[in-house]
């Protein structure tokens, strides 16, 4: 039996004093359920109560309830499997939710891949400094674990994926939720583009290049463990600037619009 949480009373969203239009019933239901998800009353993986229970609780019709669920589905807050007997499942979205519209806006403005990489360089080194200065011991151990997995990833042809995960988790481990969201969005845009650009290219990194990369990762872990924030930030900026120059070679004028099709 799927876990289902008690329901909150129906509440209306806050509106400005000059607002005239009254919210539709479906909007009120969607707002109440959305607020429960945001407040943590409904968590990732929870199922919404059965349709009949929701209708009785909110005193709404089946069409209004289904419209409310469709609103949540369009917000990527629930996942509905058609024909399923378990109903709608809560799915807390990740950076991909903002990456797609952000990618479209960047594409419409003619933004280059270089521009995206420059933004990443502005964020990740600062996050490395935060992680060094303010990160917990558990966060530092997690960074070390990710770096310890790099040699196996290189041997098995998974270095690119392991490095991407390291970059992503580095910002998450810094503890700054806003930086994490922005960095996650930029990672989504950049990685989708690079996956398309290098499709069919053999995923092999020469040993000399791998050794240089590994030394840089190890140096980062040392600086973080010693809580040398300024040094960690400076080191990671140099690392990303060097990596950016190598990744962008031949793609300097490539625009973001390539990834949205």
Automatic annotation (TrEMBL):
Pfam families: FCD, GntR. Residues 23-93 form the HTH gntR-type domain. Residues 1-23 are annotated as: Disordered. It comes from the Bacteria. One of its GO terms (molecular function) is DNA binding. Keywords: DNA-binding, Transcription, Transcription regulation. CDD domains: WHTH_GntR (cd07377). InterPro entries: GntR_C, TF_FadR/GntR_C, Tscrpt_reg_HTH_GntR, WH-like_DNA-bd_sf, WH_DNA-bd_sf. PANTHER family: HTH-TYPE TRANSCRIPTIONAL REGULATOR LGOR-RELATED, TRANSCRIPTIONAL REGULATOR, GNTR FAMILY. This is GntR family transcriptional regulator.
């Amino acid at each position: 039996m799927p876990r289902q949480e008690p329901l909150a009373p129906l509440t209306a969203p806050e509106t400005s004093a000059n607002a005239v239009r009254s919210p539709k019933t479906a909007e009120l239901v969607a707002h109440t359920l959305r607020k429960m998800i945001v407040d943590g009353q409904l968590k990732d993986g929870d199922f919404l109560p059965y349709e009949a229970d929701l209708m009785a609780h909110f005193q709404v019709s089946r069409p209004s309830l289904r419209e409310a669920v469709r609103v949540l589905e369009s917000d990527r807050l629930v996942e509905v499997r058609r024909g399923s007997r378990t109903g709608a499942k809560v799915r807390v979205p990740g950076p991909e939710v903002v990456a797609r519209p952000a990618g479209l806006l960047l594409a419409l403005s003619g933004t280059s891949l270089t521009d995206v990489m420059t933004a990443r360089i502005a964020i990740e080194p600062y996050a490395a400094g935060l992680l060094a200065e303010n990160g917990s011991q558990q966060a530092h151990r997690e960074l070390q674990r990710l770096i310890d997995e790099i040699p196996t990833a290189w041997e098995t042809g998974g270095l690119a994926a392991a490095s991407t995960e390291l970059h992503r988790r580095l910002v998450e481990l810094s503890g700054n939720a806003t930086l994490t969201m922005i960095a996650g969005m930029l990672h989504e845009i950049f990685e989708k583009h690079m996956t398309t650009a290098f499709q069919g290219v053999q995923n092999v990194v020469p040993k000399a290049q791998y050794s240089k990369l590994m030394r840089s990762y190890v140096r980062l872990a040392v600086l973080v463990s010693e809580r040398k924030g300024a040094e960690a930030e400076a080191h990671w900026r140099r690392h990303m600037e060097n990596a950016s120059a190598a990744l962008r070679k031949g793609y300097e004028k490539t625009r973001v619009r390539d990834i949205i099709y």
